[in-house]
Amino acid sequence: MERTLRLIFRDEERRNTTMSVSDPHDEHNSVSADVESAMDFILSSDVFEISGGSIVGKIKAEVVSREVETIPEF
Q1: What percent of the chain has pLDDT over 90?
Q2: How high does pLDDT run on average in the chain?
Q3: Among 63, 66, 69, 67, which Cα is nearest to 26's?
Q4: How many angstroms separate the CA atoms of 17 and 71, rounded?
Q5: What backbone torsions phi and psi does residue 27 show, to the nearest 5 degrees?
Q6: Contact present, 10 and 59 (Cβ < 8 Å)
């Protein structure tokens, strides 16, 4: 099963922008604090240039799980 951590922010134009991290670790208790710290750092550092201007707020973080089955690979 593939897992992706999605960090969802709001930009200056009030649009959502998402950053994705593949295969996040599974320790749920530390993940919440780590994710919040990472999102705060991204927000305060203002290092990402996106089409809607700077990132100005946090919306949410979520882990998306999906199962991928390859039938046959060429």
Answers
A1: 64
A2: 90
A3: 63
A4: 33
A5: -75, 95
A6: yes
